[in-house]
Structure formats: C-alpha cells, structure tokens
Design goal:
Layout lengths: L14 E6 L5 E6 L8 E6 L12 H11 L3 E6 L7 E5 L2 E5 L9 H14 L4 E7 L1 H12 L7 E5 L4 H26 L18 H8 L10 H5 L11 H4 L5 E6 L9 H12 L5 E6 L10 H13 L1
Helix pairs in contact: 1-9, 4-5
Length: 308
C-alpha cells in the first residue's frame, strides 16, 4: 500500500507566512485556509515558557477542526516564542524569546497579524489566546479596545505573577522586584536572573514585567484573591472587566496551574466579571491546561459559542 496521505493523518495543508509586527519585528506563522473561500479566520496566540506553534501537537489538530467548520486558522510565533533567540528588526536584531519579552509588545504583534489577514481578505476575525496568550488577548483589548477583532476566546488564562508570589513568598518576591528595578536602572536589565528566582532563563526586565502585581501581566490574580492578599495597588482583574466585545473564557477542569482548585478560580473570575451579556465562562470536562486530547471538544465549544 502507498504512503497514507498527509491530510488523512491529520496534517492539513498550510502555507508559511512571514510578516512584520507594527514595530518592524519579523514574525512567522502558518495560514490554514478551507477549500471554500471565507472571510472568517482565527488568530492563535501561544503561551510563554518556550512555546512555539511549530512544536505544539495541537497546531495541526486545531487547524483541522477549524477548517472542518469553514474557518481559516492563523497561529504564529510571537516575539516571546522559545526561550532565548534573536529577532530580526529591519536594520538590526534585538533580544527575543520568553526571556526578554514584555507583554505589552503583544499589541504590536497582534496588530501585525491582523494587518496580514485583512490584506488577504479576512474581515470576521476571532482572536484566540492560550495560557499567557489569553493574558495577551486581555492586554491587547485593554490598550487597544477599538480594534478590528470581532470576538475573543481566552483559553486557560494564567496567573504567572501569583505563581511566583506563591513560590518565593511575599518578602522574597518584594526584594526580587526591587532588585530588578535596580538592575534596570543600572542598565543591566537584559542580564538573566539567578536560578533561585526562576527555573526558566529570564532577564531582570522581563522578570519585573511578569511579576509586578501592578503590571500588565497580572491579568488573572487568582492567588492574591484566594490568599486575601493585596500585592499591588491597582484593581484586580482590571484588564478583563473592561472587555466589551463577545468573549469566551474557557478552562479545563483538570488545569494543573490553578492551585488545585479550578472551580474556585473560575468562580473568582465569574465574581470579578459580574453578569455581562457579552461574556461566557465555561469549563471543559477531563481537560488539562493544554486541552490535550480534547481539541475536538474545544473547537466545538468555541464554534457553538460563536453561533449563539
């Protein structure tokens, strides 16, 4: 027998697309398009900690499911992909990867992806973010609420700020943040923090960005609410409270990063959002943080929500 066709093995046809963020940083993604022409497309934002849409098993699986529902799919590697890398930016390169990323730069990356899709004729665009990608969806809306995205899907939004606080404790966490500020002031912000502060390589600048309780990274401060802490001065959940577009927040009931209590964290989020007609919260049964093995149910949940 001949070799099994790639599409039969769950490998839908795609094209490699190179494009620029709005500040000139060169990015690359995969564009999956259904056979029947459509104006509907979904952009996918991956998480942090070394993530890459090219390495993730879910990329082809999600693409196949969305194509079956007549939607194009555009996952791309943002400037925080992988851990340590150099990014091309017109005439010079800059530090990139999760070790050097600042979350607010996601606005430039997302706008670049939107510009690329709109130039290709797509106008009904859904922005999907997973893990830290969900945080980026909220940060994007917070800083640019007037944008061409039709709707948001926030999958397994993470509390990286809270996890560091839980790991280091309040005193060590405050001291580390002050040290990060001092290193940045001394123009040493691109140096990596010691392993005692982070198991993953990360610069002092990005460490401060990720763990500042008043910063943009702290979108889902579950740990602070659960522990009745006020680590910062700004209101909890301020990024998501202001969302006015249709938005679906979805978690797996076995998410390993929600402090062993998914239902409580989802309840905290529900209380923070309040009754909003544009927002829906859902929990997918038997699903972990990455929704591994549940991709079909995940896409069906998203598509059914879009149809309501």
């Amino acid at each position: 027998m001949g070799r099994q066709a790639a599409q039969d093995r769950g490998e839908p046809l795609t094209r490699l697309v190179r494009f620029e963020a709005t500040d000139g940083v060169e990015l690359v993604g995969l564009l999956y398009e259904p056979k029947r022409k459509t104006k509907r497309a979904a952009i996918f934002l991956h998480g942090t900690g070394g993530s890459s849409i090219f390495d993730a098993k879910r990329t082809n699986v999600l693409a196949a499911e969305l194509l079956a529902h007549g939607m194009a799919f555009f996952p791309f590697n943002n400037r925080g992909a992988h851990v340590l890398r150099r990014l091309r930016r017109r005439k010079r390169s800059i530090n990139g990867g999760a070790a050097h990323e600042l979350i607010r730069d996601c606005v430039k990356d997302i706008d670049g992806a939107l510009r690329e899709l709109r130039a290709r004729g797509y106008s009904d665009i859904t922005l999907i973010g997973h893990s830290t990608g969900a945080n980026k969806v909220a940060v994007y809306d917070f800083h640019k609420p007037r944008n061409p995205v039709k709707r948001y899907v926030l999958l397994a939004g993470g509390d990286d700020t809270g996890m560091t606080l839980a790991n280091l404790g309040e005193r060590r966490s405050r001291a580390a943040l002050e040290k990060a500020k001092a290193r940045i002031k001394a123009k040493r912000g691109d140096e990596l923090v010691p392993k005692g502060l982070s198991s993953m390589p990360i610069s002092w600048r990005s460490f401060l960005d990720m763990n500042n309780p008043d910063g943009d990274y702290n979108v889902f401060p579950f740990y602070e609410v659960m522990q009745n802490l006020r680590a910062g001065r700004r209101p909890h959940f301020r990024h998501v409270k202001g969302i006015r577009k249709p938005a679906l927040f979805l978690y797996g009931d076995e998410d390993e990063y929600l402090y062993g209590d998914v239902s409580r964290c989802v309840g905290i989020l529900a209380d923070a959002l309040g009754p909003k007609p544009n927002v829906e919260l859902a929990v997918l049964a038997d699903a972990d943080h990455g929704f591994g093995g549940k991709e079909r149910q995940l896409v069906e949940t998203i598509v059914n929500w879009m149809a309501d």
